[in-house]
Amino acid sequence: MTAPVESPSIRRLADWDPTRLESLAQDYGSPLYVLDLERVRENYRRLESAFPDAEILYAVKANALGDVLETLREEGAGLECASAGEVERALAASESAAENGATGANVHYTAVNPPARDLEWVVDAWEEYPDLTITVGAEDTIDRLEERGYDGRLCLRVNPGIGAGHHEKVQTGAAAKFGVPAERAVDVLADAADRGFDVVGIHAHVGSGVSSDQLGDHREFVSRMGDLARDVSEALAGDGDGLEFVDVGGGFGVPYREEDQPLDLEAVGDATRDALGDVDAALTIEPGRYFVADAGVLLTAVNTVKEARDTLAVGVDAGMTTLLRPAMYDAYHPIRNLTAAIEAEQHGASDDERGRETVAQTIAGPICESGDVFCENRHLPVSERTDVLVIGNAGAYGYEMANQYNSRPRPASIVLEDGDVRLARRRETLEDVTRLEREARDSEPSANHETHAEHDTR
Ligand SMILES: *Cc1c(COP(=O)(O)O)cnc(C)c1O
After folding, report:
1. Ligand 1 mean position to 287 CA, how many Å?
2. Which residues lie below 8 Å from residue 347, measured CB to CB, with a gap of 6+?
3. Quick one: which residues bind substrate (predicted)?
4. Catalytic residue annotation
5. CATH 2.40.37.10 domain position(s) in the chain
6. Which CATH class is domain 37-293?
7. Which residues contact 281 (CB under 8 A, 6 or more apart)?
8. Which of 153, 160, 216, 349 has CB 3.0 to 4.6 Å from 133, enough for a Cys bridge?
9. C-beta 135 within 6 A of ligand 1
């Protein structure tokens, strides 16, 4: 689409303007997610230029905010969805993007143990959007689609038996839950084609966190996918148009630690093309994190500072319910004290450390769980009550994993675009937190009954 632009391959926390961020926290309150849509565009264009002939899908689950989906659709990305809710968002974003000139409705639904309600919703949507692709990871799912009258575009998720990723919880390639064993793929797809499905692709996603030093594993995985694609094409010869694409998933890593280097995208692109070999099908990739991680930060305010045994214990208003990754994956996120950085700037010091003493600090949220900690013994300028801190690389799997544990409302999200600031999603209130049960209590007993009867669990 647009000519590739020279953009830095990573935006570090120090690249965000402390004064601007602090004033956003003043204006919108904290905790607050901030997402820069220009950076999302830059990340898309960089990836597109490293994979010039690939079909690029955005894995919506990394950040499903409508503004992100519309931005990426406008850039030409398709959307890979993990649920009916994501498909609904993707179709809505595609319509908005179409009004701005984007074409095609390249939306994939990756059905992992899909609840009946999701299948019903997606099959209904398909009647209106016949270009929709459904990726299945079990023969059961094919049967369940057939029972619902679906004979549209079908892609098979295979389990390649290899995993990759920054943490065992994000390695999906070998987990029994995901996909059909690769050695069954040819039979399953030949059978699906016989039954009238429009077989269009094969898919695998080995995990999240593909890095430059795991390029060998990536190559091995992609080359297996290439072999499989050739086998499938041969088996399907004469049955329809053959395979349209080979989807090798996402998982492109981003550096979270200051010392980590960004992925060498050109090298990954070349290795992927090369390993896939000669196949008569398009290469498809579907990264999520890569587009949004460094486009977002989380702002949080310090409310408690106390001396603990070996560390300064600092309490902030964001917690594991706001940003779950540290508690769930032991993930590292860079943290900067904006107030201290601004003070240091005003005093003419060139770095944060000059203004305030640097000490080891444990920064924790308001949730009653010992895992509710953003960092332990991290060396930062001494925190003071009312300081605003920024947590970096929070654009991916940040708000998406936010929840209401401890009856805590979810934070607001704002977006930056063309120098403007816009509220993208308001902060939840205590009213929101209790709304569903109040509604249930207020509704008629008969209405209650109907909701119960609604489900069909096939
Ligand atoms: C999560 C997921 C992705 C994206 O993973 P990232 O690490 O965010 O790039 C892509 N495909 C599937 C099927 C996924 O589940």
Report:
1. 6
2. 354, 355
3. 289, 325, 329, 369, 397
4. 368
5. 294-423
6. alpha beta
7. 201, 229, 233, 242, 243, 244, 245, 246
8. 153
9. no
Look at the block and give the residue holding tokens 């990726």.
135
287 in contact with ligand 1, CB cutoff 6 A: yes
Nearest CA owner, ligand 1 atom 13: 205
Q: Which atom of ligand 1 is nearest to the CA of 209?
A: 7
Beta carbon of 211 within 6 Å of any ligand 1 atom: no
Tell me the pLDDT tens digit for each residue of 322-361: 999 999 999 999 999 999 999 999 887 655 545 799 999 9
Q: Mapping DSSP to helix (H, G, I), strand (E, B) and coil, where does residue 180 land?
A: strand
Which SS3 state, helix, strand or coil, does residue 328 take?
Answer: helix
Ligand 1 centroid to Cα of residue 300, in Å, is 27
pTM exceeds 0.85: yes
* Contact assessment for residue 108 and residue 133, using Cβ atoms and an 8 Å cutoff: yes
Tell me: pLDDT of 68 over 60.
Answer: yes
Task: Compute the half-sphere exposure of residue 228: CA atoms within 13 Å on the CB side of its CA.
Answer: 29
**Is any ligand 1 atom within 6 A of the Cβ of residue 249?**
yes
Q: Is 301 helix (H, G, I), strand (E, B) or coil?
A: strand
Decide: 59 in ligand 1 pocket, CB within 6 A: yes
Are the C-beta atoms of 136 and 155 separated by less than 8 Å?
Answer: yes
* Residue 346 backbone dihedrals phi, psi, to 5 degrees: -65, -30
| CA-62 nearest atom, ligand 1 | 8
Closest ligand 1 atom to 252 CA: 9
pLDDT reported for residue 238 = 73
Q: Is domain 294-423 given the CATH code 2.40.37.10 in the classification?
A: yes
Q: Which residue ranges are tagged as binding site for substrate?
A: 289, 325, 329, 369, 397
Length of the chain: 458
pLDDT in tens, 254-304: 999 999 999 999 999 999 999 999 999 999 999 999 999 999 999 999 999
CA distance 272 to 248: 9
d(CA 96, CA 98): 5
Pocket test for ligand 1, best of 61, 136, 254 (most atoms within 8 A of CB): 61
